[in-house]
């Protein structure tokens, strides 16, 4: 078992990819990770009333460690009941596991629209599979998540369009250019499951607009066009205000345009509104400070996130930690 005085060091550091060789001296202990999403670049409904979102992957996320042992599943912290449910399902069909201790640590606040629940679950699935000596497949993972709750598409690398209520992939859109998101939190929490039980009225006109925006966004991501990416995100934020009150949205959009930001993004089923900045902007530092000041002026808790940038040829963040970073 892990010595509680010596937790995995990665939990205390920013959520980043490990770029060292895949080795472990502690077989049987499984480790999994998943990144979060800072709200969504867009979210809406397509033809056939299919609800979808586009992920905005960030570097922060969740880490899970599964330590086999005993006949029961215990989880730390104890309120992570969905993670316990998923681990129990996977262990029940496992040929090598009977029980164990699952520890989940996350840099993502709950109920804010940062995909914290999905990140916890994806990290959990990867940790349990890792304990079995295998990698969990996307088909298996999505089937398990589908039985628990609507889910974001953070199990995929890069940005994706995702049918979150169906827990199915729509389209892989590729990697985003380097972006910073300065967010203000309006307070409170949103229960994602309850939010997705609501049925906002989307007519054919809305569905056509969302389809057009998704096409525009796909082209913009391929081209690395930050201006077009920001324009789509801002339009989706405006459309979302018809279904969920956002007290600072109009002011944020107005001031973001004045300071020359790329655009505005929201957590469509959360409490955060963010200002998108290009990290390649020559005035980036000045705009970053201005965006932080703007969000703080609304009396909001301010956070700064950076888009996750996978590097070709390096290990994905759900793969095993190198031996020196495994629990003692």
Itemize the secondary structure elements and their pairings:
Blueprint: E1 30-46, E2 50-68, E3 73-76, H1 81-92, E4 100-106, H2 116-131, H3 138-146, E5 159-163, E6 168-174, E7 179-185, H4 192-195, H5 204-223, H6 226-240, H7 249-259, E8 263-266, E9 272-278, H8 284-297, E10 301-306
Parallel strand pairs: 3-4
Antiparallel strand pairs: 1-2, 2-4, 2-5, 5-6, 7-9, 7-10, 8-9
Domain GHMP kinase C-terminal: 220-282
Keywords: Kinase, Transferase
Organism: Nocardia ignorata
Please, could you describe this protein's structure?
By secondary structure, this protein is of the alpha+beta class. The protein has one domain: Ribosomal Protein S5, domain 2, CATH 3.30.230.120. It is 31% helix and 25% strand. The protein is built from 8 helices and 10 strands. The strands form 2 sheets. Strands 1, 2, 3, 4, 5 and 6 form a 6-stranded mixed beta sheet that branches. Strand 8 and strand 9 form a beta hairpin. The longest helix has 20 residues. It is globular, with a radius of gyration of 20 Å. 44% of the residues are buried. Keywords: Kinase, Transferase. It comes from Nocardia ignorata.
Order of helices and strands: EEEHEHHEEEHHHHEEHE
Q: How much of the polypeptide forms β-strand, as a percent range? A: 25-35%
User: How many separate domains make up the residues?
Assistant: 1
From the 3D structure, determine the CATH topology: Ribosomal Protein S5, domain 2
CA gyration radius, whole angstroms: 20 Å
Q: What spatial form do the alpha-carbon principal axes imply?
A: globular
Reading off the top of the CATH hierarchy, the class is best stated as Alpha Beta
Largest sheet: 6 strands, mixed
CATH architecture type: 2-Layer Sandwich
How helix-rich are the residues, as a percent range? 25-40%
**Low-confidence spans: pLDDT under 50, at least 5 residues?**
1-27, 313-328
Number of helical stretches of at least 4 residues: 8
How many β-strands, per DSSP? 10
Arithmetic mean pLDDT = 85
Structural class based on helices, strands and sheet pairing: alpha+beta
Instruction: Report, as a whole number of angstroms, the end-to-end distance.
Output: 8 Å
């Amino acid at each position: 078992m892990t010595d509680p005085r010596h937790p995995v060091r990665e939990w205390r550091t920013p959520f980043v990819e490990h770029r060292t060789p895949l080795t472990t001296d502690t077989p049987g202990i499984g480790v999994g990770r998943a990144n979060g999403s800072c709200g969504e670049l867009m979210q809406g409904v397509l033809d056939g009333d299919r609800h979808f979102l586009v992920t905005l992957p960030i570097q922060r996320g969740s880490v899970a460690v599964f330590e086999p042992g005993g006949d029961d599943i215990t989880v730390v912290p104890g309120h992570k009941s969905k993670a316990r449910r998923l681990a129990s399902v996977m262990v029940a069909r496992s040929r090598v596991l009977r029980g164990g201790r699952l520890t989940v640590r996350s840099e993502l606040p709950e109920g804010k629209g940062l995909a914290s629940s999905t990140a916890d679950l994806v990290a959990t699935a990867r940790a349990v599979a890792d304990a079995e000596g295998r990698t969990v497949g996307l088909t298996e993972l999505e089937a398990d998540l589908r039985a628990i709750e609507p889910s974001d598409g953070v199990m995929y690398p890069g940005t994706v369009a995702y049918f979150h209520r169906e827990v199915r992939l729509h389209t892989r859109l590729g990697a985003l250019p380097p972006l910073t998101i300065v967010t203000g939190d309006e307070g409170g929490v949103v229960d994602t499951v309850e939010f997705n039980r609501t049925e906002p009225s989307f007519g054919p006109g809305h569905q056509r607009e969302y389809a057009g925006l998704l096409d525009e966004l796909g082209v913009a991501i391929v081209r690395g066009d930050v201006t077009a990416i920001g324009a789509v995100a801002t339009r989706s934020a405006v459309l979302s205000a018809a279904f969920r009150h956002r007290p600072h949205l109009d002011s944020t959009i107005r001031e973001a345009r004045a300071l020359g930001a790329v655009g505005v993004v929201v957590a469509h089923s959360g409490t955060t509104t963010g200002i998108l900045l290009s990290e390649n902007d020559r005035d980036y530092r000045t705009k970053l400070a201005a965006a932080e000041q703007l969000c703080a002026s609304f009396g909001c808790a301010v956070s700064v996130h950076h888009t996750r940038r996978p590097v070709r040829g390096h290990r994905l963040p759900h793969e095993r930690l190198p031996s020196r970073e495994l629990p003692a």
